[in-house]
Amino acid sequence: MQRQRAWQALTKVPKLTAFFWAIKILTTGMGEAVSDYLTHHVNPFVAVFIGFVGFVVAMAVQFSRKKYVPWAYWLAASMVAIFGTMAADGLHIQFGVPYIASAIFYAFVLAAVFSVWHKSEGTLAIHSIHTPKRETFYWLAVLSTFAMGTALGDLTANTFGLGYFASGILFTAIFAAPAITFWIRRANPVLTFWLCYIITRPLGASFADWAGVPKSFGGLNLGRGTVSLALIIIIAILVGIISVTRADAQSKEA
Question: Are 138 and 13 in contact (CB under 8 A)?
Answer without folding.
Answer: yes
